[in-house]
Amino acid sequence: MRIETSWFRAFIRKHQKAALVLFFIGGFIWDSLTLGRIDRLYDITVLCTYLTSLTICLYLYNLADDGKWKGSFIERFEEYLPLAIQFFIGGLSSAFVIYFSKSVSLSKTISFFIILVFLLFANELLKKRLSNKYLQFGAYFFVNFIFFSFFLPVLIKEMNTSVFILSGAISLTTTLILIFYIYIVSPATRAEIRIHKMLAIVFGIYIVINLSYYFNLIPPVPLALETGMAAHSIGKENGHYRVTYETDEWYIFWRKHRIKYAHKPGEPVYIFSSIFAPTDLKKSISHRWKWFSPFTNRWEVIENISFDITGGRDEGYRGYSYKDNMMDGKWRVDVITVEELVLGVIDFEIETDSLSRPQNLVTKVY
Predict the structure, then answer these.
(1) Global pTM value
(2) I need a labelling partner for 354 at 20 to 30 A (CA). Which of 5, 45, 127, 273 fits?
(3) Mind listing the domains of the chain with CATH numbers?
């Protein structure tokens, strides 16, 4: 056993640079294969375990430079702590990307994909890599904040701006407690960092996330628009929706419906949406129909149509709206909450022609 352990230790020391990235990617892949619903007991347990383990590893790692663990069993595992930190950050980040990517509006989540890439390569850009305490606690606060923004609505069965603000306050408080505690008990940490600089980084991240939420750069987690499309007809039968819509050519795989909508005069246009929400979470949702006016070169709100949703269904809560007397041109339907936070955007373009026929019509049951 000692030979195997020594071999593994020597291998990690030789390839530490690559091992850090591999452990980060390992956390990402593992979560991609195992996580699915934020309100599922397994998912909640995994995320809580990751965040708790990350907190413990940060504490152990930052006190190791003070010789705190000399002579204890923890000393044998000190050099593996960076790998553990990288794995848990990768696991949490990948989980958040999985949940955010449930939304059909990728443009609303792209900022967090960028942050994920930054977390993946930041230790390659900084000279001290993961030993840089500013990077450590900055990444910790980010994943901590997003964790509570997911977890708190699931816990209290309520999702609104006040809950998001409370999530940020909890994560900010817990992060500052950890930072100040380590700073007080660790002389090595006090020698390495400037506390005002650390606080500036943490509060900077806090402001950026809140501004991103305010300007709809991130979706109102944990709600997510799973399916959204313009349809020619929608019928309900035995608790299921039969949705008929146009599809694009096979190589346009990133959306379900065709943007060019073949419209006949007098026929209604339907918008179908399926929204994921955690179990027992209730929320009012609106379809905001907007038309791009060629006269003003602006999007004009035509109508808001609201309905309530109740979470718990794996495929999402289904709902639709429709309009008659459609005008030619570009249309956009924003799927929004009562706080006007955008879950997703459904784009299509009306081409009215009494002789035109819809292309590649399909009917799917939801």
Answers:
(1) 0.79
(2) 273
(3) 2-214 (no CATH), 224-365 (2.60.40.1930)
